[in-house]
Amino acid sequence: xxxxxxxxxxxxxxxxxxxxxxxxxxxxxxxxxxxxxxxxxxxxxxxxxxxxxxxxxxxxxxxxxxxxxxxxxxxxxxxxxxxxxxxxxxxxxxxxxxxxxxxxxxxxxxxxxxxxxxxxxxxxxxxxxxxxxxxxxxxxxxxxxxxxxxxxxxxxxxxxxxxxxxxxxxxxxxxxxxxxxxxxxxxxxxxxxxxxxxxxxxxxxxxxxxxxxxxxxxxxxxxxxxxxxxxxxxxxxxxxxxxxxxxxxxxxxxxxxxxxxxxxxxxxxxxxxxxxxxxxxxxxxxxxxxxxxxxxxxxxxxxxxxxxxxx
Amino acid sequence: xxxxxxxxxxxxxxxxxxxxxxxxxxxxxxxxxxxxxxxxxxxxxxxxxxxxxxxxxxxxxxxxxxxxxxxxxxxxxxxxxxxxxxxxxxxxxxxxxxxxxxxxxxxxxxxxxxxxxxxxxxxxxxxxxxxxxxxxxxxxxxxxxxxxxxxxxxxxxx
Lengths: 311, 158
Known about the structure:
- The complex is a heterodimer of chains A (311) and B (158).
- Chain A is α+β, with helices and mostly antiparallel strands and 311 residues long.
- Helices cover 61% and strands 8% of the residues of chain A.
- The longest helix of chain A is centred in the C-terminal third of the chain and has 24 residues, at 287-310.
- Chain B is mainly alpha-helical and 158 residues long.
- Chain B has 2 domains: 8-103, Arc Repressor Mutant, subunit A (Orthogonal Bundle); 117-152, no CATH class.
- Chain B contains 7 helices and 3 strands.
- In chain B, strands 1-3-2 form a 3-stranded antiparallel β-sheet.
- In chain B, helix 2 crosses helix 4 (50-67).
- Chain B is elongated, with a radius of gyration of 21 Å.
- The chains are: A alpha+beta (311), B mainly alpha (158).
- Chain A binds chain B through residues 37-43, 132, 135-136, 138-139, 142-143, 169, 172-173, 176-177, 179, 181, and chain B through 8, 23-24, 26-27, 30-31, 34-35, 37-39, 42-43, 48, 50, 79.
């Protein structure tokens, strides 16, 4: 079935494309296509393949996949791995015989194919998490010299998110150079980006970690440290003063009395995920596991409700 | 003849190591690993984490470089550190990659000192005696510096 959105997407990217009718499925280089998939963790989501297979068996027409010919004359999939997997699955189970399908065939540069492969899951397919889109955006900036704004647009996230992601990574790298490997959330790390002096950065990061400072507090601290950047001595004095200011908090963290607060939205999302994971179709064979997850989900939900009442 | 390194992360790894200093694996994983595609990295990690996948891939590369004698490894407490050993190879790698060497940090030079054989034999004998006395081996550079320092303050090497 023709897919106007895919056609529009390809045209927008300025690549040459055409439709090819009745291409045998055997022409697909399946291994290379799976390797070419840009989804994190796993190439295919089995549940999604099953859903599409059911659609095929119900007589629904799926949009034509997008691919390109490699030098051996075989097709490598750019978009539509799940659809092709579903066709293969119904054939293997002998529930239907789909031997030929129509394709959108792209002819362009290798780097452009890479960009299309990375962004195809974003324009369609299963909902791509923000963290995954951010990783792809950073990759476009680093490997394909995209501007941060263009990469953000391509991956459908805000330019600020890409800025913060890149800055956080840079800070983490600078800290690792001085063997500071403690975990600080990326959202807090990016606030330290403005500190250009490595020594001051390491000392401030230690303070952030020891006093369990929030993102906003870290930003405030970074501003004060950076303001004193004219002289190293002055900067050291500011950091010492900040340490004195946060003395109590550092002591409380050391005693284990202070832990980073998880914001209610994250806790709520965790609770919802836990409930979702108790759906019988997700964990049918594991009865005790199902029970354990259900208990944990109820407990989490109770915690969220309690904290909602208390605030 | 060694084959050229084609992957961006390998080239970046060599560039970072070119300063001749010891670098810990975590830092190298971040500095060079950021050029590895996130999906490849996440599939190389048990937890699916992009960062640990990148570190795993970079460690694998370092191990293979070490096997070929290009880099050396040491354990410094809980850290595992790496240093470039074969600077000629690194220069070749970067030339193949089309990197402008002038823009890179200067390559440390290890100079050879030429001294008469008789003097070398005397020095070597002293070094041997020193090692026997202290029951530990000492590198030539460290030994010569110690000798120089002692002679400057007018002391004997006991």
